[in-house]
Structures are given as structure tokens and as C-alpha cells.
Amino acid sequence: MSARIEDRGDRLIIWNGNTARRGALSPELYDCIATAMRQAADPRIRAVILTSEGEFFCAGGDLNVLIARRTISVEERRDRIDDLHDLVRAMRACPVPIIAAVEGGAAGAGLSLALACDLIVASKEAKFTAAYVKAGLVPDAGLTSAMARLLPRPLAMEMCLLGRPVMASRFAELGAVSRLCPVGHALEEALLLADTLAAGPRDAQSTIRQLVSTAYESTEAEQLDAERDAMAVAAGADEAAEGIAAFLEKRKPAYR
């Protein structure tokens, strides 16, 4: 099985099981991500974790598949790429935070998927690579957009133009990786993050990730309006009532 979803009650784990090809993208992984994004609408789900069963998070597109696509039209190739882009759009629209647990590294579209997550936990030896250029290709799956948000322009250019890998520690220094951990412990750290999220206010978290996501494209005036509208709703919600009461009473909040 090249991909599967594990339901752990209040979180979903998407396992990339294509270990024979270093976690390269597969139709099964597409299906699992799309399914998990739909299942995340269930109020009991508090986080989604994307990880790999092997020693490498995701090597991106399968070059053998790309070779086969040379025989189809440009329009057909666009449709195939849109299938991948629809996954990124679905991840952006997910109602709960998504955590990438990265072992070994993420390359190409695998890096795109990692950067599409809200939080990244990576082992200290993990490497991030945008090596499209080495195969005469160009980035897709929102990679250049994510890099523009998260990385200095010279580093993004170096990664894309030269295809050089960057260590997770460098990404962590830049704030693109949330937590570094010893090799083999990425999922464990991701689960701890999920525990923290599960104890928090689900609706507020969902609204926060929407606000942060739209802030990159919105004008300041648009974002001020969005924050105003979101705060007006949040201030009258049960989560705020419990959170404020817990703060004033010096206790931990008990969100439903």
C-alpha cells in the first residue's frame, strides 16, 4: 500500500508508504490527502499529520511518470498538474492545522507539500531540495509561492536555479521549520504538537489559520476588515467565554 490514513480519534495521520521510490507522489497519496482534507471537517478532528513510512518524507514527482507524459498534449499535462494543485488548494482550505513530520528530506513537489502544511517538524539531518532544474523542469504545486512567503529571495533562487539542498537546521533558523528533532522522532514531535492543538479552541484555531493564510495576498485594509469580522464573531462564541473565564480564574481552559 503506497498511502493510507490512520484515524487516531482527534487526529488523522496520512502515511506516505511509497518507500520503494523514496516517498514519490502516487495516485494513492493524492486520494489519501484529498480524503483526509474532507474528513477533517468532522468536529472531533483537531489536526492532520502528513508523514512517511520510510526514511524519506517525499521525493516529489515520479520521473518515470513524467517521461510518459511527454506523449500527451500540453492541455492534458495541465490537467494532470491541476490534480496536484487541487491537493494544495484543499490543504490550504483545511479547517484544522496540518503538520508535516519530515524524516530524511523533502524534494520537488514533496517540498511543496511540506510547505503547504501549517507546521513542519523535521529531523536534524533532513534536507529540503527544489531540484527541478536538474531534470530540466520548473517548480509546481505552489513551491515558488511558498518560498516567496518563507525564504529570502537569494536562497529561493539558489535552491531553484542550482538545485542545491538546504538542511532543515537552516530552514529552522529562518522560521520555516517549527521544530527540529533527532532522527527518527519527527512523528513523535508532531504528535506532541497535535496534543497541544487538541487542547485548544478548535474554531479559533481554524479562523486563525485562515487569517494568516489570507494575510499574504490581502491588502492591509482587506486584512483589517477580515480580522474585525472574525474577532466580532469570536468574542461572542463559547470558546471565548471559556478562555476568558479560565484566564481570569487562573486555570486551564476546558474547551469542548
Describe the 3D structure.
The protein has 256 residues and is of the alpha/beta class. It has two domains: 3-198, 2-enoyl-CoA Hydratase, Chain A, domain 1 (Alpha-Beta Complex), CATH 3.90.226.10; 202-248, Lyase 2-enoyl-coa Hydratase, Chain  A, domain 2. 48% of the residues lie in helices and 15% in strands. The protein contains eleven helices and nine strands. The protein has helices at 27-39, 63-68, 74-92, 109-116, 143-150, 153-162, 168-173, 186-198, 202-215, 220-234, 238-248; strands spanning 3-7, 11-16, 47-52, 98-102, 105-107, 119-123, 127-129, 166-167, 179-181. Strands 1-2-3-4-6-9 form a six-stranded mixed sheet, with helices on both faces. A three-stranded mixed sheet has the order 5-7-8. Helix 1 (27-39) packs parallel to helix 3 (74-92) and helix 9 (202-215) packs antiparallel against helix 10 (220-234). The longest helix has 19 residues, at 74-92. The radius of gyration is 19 Å and the shape is globular. The chain starts with a strand and ends in an 8-residue tail after the last helix. The mean pLDDT is 96.
